[in-house]
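Continuing the batch. This is chain 6 of the set; chains 1 through 5 are on the previous pages. Same settings as before, nothing changed between runs. Recording input and output for traceability.
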Amino acid sequence: MNIIEVASRRYSTKKFDSSRLLTPEQLSDVKALLRLSPSSVNSQPWHFVISDTAQGKARIAKAAGGQYVANESKILDAAFSVVFCVKTDFTDDYLEALLEQEQQDGRIDSEEMKAKVRKVRAFYADLHRVEWQDTQCWMEKQVYLNMGAFLLGVGAMGLDAVPIEGVDTAILDAEFGLTKQGYKALAVVAVGYQAENDFNAKLPKSRWPESMLFSEV
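Output for chain 6:
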């Protein structure tokens, strides 16, 4: 696999082939991609509402009505749809839970190391929670970092996808009880296989030239 070929091939799918589903193995890999994404200080401030069923996708697609109706069929026809959600707080209790998980996973092998990780993570967390007071924005950046890795990852799996911010996130929050769980919806990603009549699949990719993007020092 050549990752540049994957990046060149992937595009925002406008129309999915609703007859093509994902295998159980693909579904497992898709979920693994979401779990394994990098995040600042391993903060992982995310949650995902996922569905590969008609009923579940229909619930997600409730947020794609009205002015967003052009996105409804993408969610319904995709093989798999994901609501990317972000935490609404970043508490000391959450930081301690992260430490405990890392210890269980073998990443922290001593109390001395645990204290060091706690100190470093608290320093960066408090830059956002106290000094800059941009915690929510910072956490949302981590979710979008996940989304970018996810789009490239499913492309490497030979799947097509489209990120969709054109949804009513308040409807998603209510539909899935996200607020009570301490999350809010940010966007949806639909994953599957392009339809033969997807016009966007046939268009060449357009990007700024290297001369516009890079300053070599």
